[in-house]
Amino acid sequence: MEVAAYQPYIDPDYDSFIERIYPAKVCIDNETCRDCTLVKVDSANKHGILLEMVQVLTDLDLVISKSYISSDGGWFMDVFHVTDQLGNKLVDESLIHYIEQALCATRRAGLSKEIQGSSQRKHFGPRHMSSEHTVLEMTGTDRPGLLSEMSAVLAELACHIASAVAWTHHDRAACIFYVEDGVRTGPITDPRRLAQIEEQLENVVEAHHAKGERRSVRLTGPMAGQTHAERRLHQLMFADMDYEQCRCCGHSCCGDGGGRGGYEHRKGCEGAHVSIESWKDKGYSVVNVRSRDRPKLLFDTVCVLTDMQYVVFHASVSSEGALANQEYFIRHRDGCTLDSETEQRKLTQCLLAAVERRASHGLRLEVSTQNRPGLLSDVTRVFRENGLSIMRADVGIRGERAIGSFYVTEASGNDVSPSTVELVRKEIGGSVLVVNKSSGASTPQGPLSALSAGLIGRNGDEKPRLSLGSLIWSQLERFSSNFGPIKL
């Protein structure tokens, strides 16, 4: 975030000067509140700093229950109320030290060399797109078996998948694969080989698309400074215009004639709702987002506001039981408020899409099995052959084991039967844990742990997370050194 563009011109070197004179201050307070830890941040302001702060906390699977934000006058101040996934305060000194270092480092455009080389980073590493892998990005029409077919092509072309993450929303799909050369160790850098792989994948994606239908396949070599993986998924789906079908509470997102970008939220309704009002006296547009609460909701919302070039000057975020309320006082980076109905409608739809993309649909399966080449192809083929559609996926490597988190439904959209799950478990040949079942609603427990892109080091070392799923696996393994398949 930054002061709006109509302010007087400031030399680009001014930012770095301010950072040296007024470095960011971070305070971790475990005394003020009985049931949560307060993370307080004071820093010189810049565009995107709010997202960077939220990103640090959500990458640690911490739950942000409340937040108060102010960034007027060129200074950023924020208070986050956080707990771990089990609702406990943060008491691990190494974790607290890492948070202090990482939040200060965001003002210096990334983690410092000290943090990058520290032992803490091995335990609390951020989910950035890996600069050590070839990156495959795909967007297109969702259909059963798409992930399976793409991973099969990669396996046939001797491409090892180090990690992958995929989302689906409104019949659209976006996924990111992190790939290594199966012939030579390391990323794929040969331009001819990259072109061959990309052509084969385009054929798979194109096969089920109508003429002129939106789709994209992009394969790039490793590069420094790549975008955070989950933020990149938001960007891919935004570019794919998955937001076009989004509606508030089942109604139209059109303004109601009163300068708002949505309708009043009905009492007792848990559907996502966005309203936009004009506060002309102060020169702000006031955006209210009310939805079912879930982990990473704040991150998803701020991603959209930041990437759509809106500046958050003040904000308040809180939860009431199962519902979350978010209020933002914003302007566009050019200093303008959202005065046109068209702009209000688009922002409303994009915020609704941000809320919905990570919503948990279907049965969640946590899979742990011995890693091997072509494993993702085999696992997704088992899902496809048993008539299951993958709604979301998040897979990676932990030591010599592959860990995957999948949300699945029947191809018809119905719930998965226990007999089908049992068949899948037997065919996969590893440990399969049914975590929860939801019917189109996001769950308060939130993501349970599968490693996302960027959590795998070059040497395959594990970077453990403070997630409930990690705790589940660690406790089960602790009770049995011969951990076998779980009977469902």
UniProtKB/TrEMBL annotation:
Q: What is this protein called?
A: ACT domain-containing protein ACR
Going by the entry's taxonomy, the superkingdom of the source organism is recorded as: Eukaryota
State a single Gene Ontology molecular function.
Answer: amino acid binding
Q: Which SUPFAM superfamilies match?
A: ACT-like
The UniProt record lists the keyword Iron = no
The record's listing under Pfam families reads: ACT, ACT_6
What keyword terms does UniProt attach to this protein? Repeat
Q: Which residue intervals define the domain ACT in the entry?
A: 38-120, 135-217, 364-440
Q: What does this protein do?
A: Binds amino acids.
> Protein biosynthesis among the record's keywords?
no
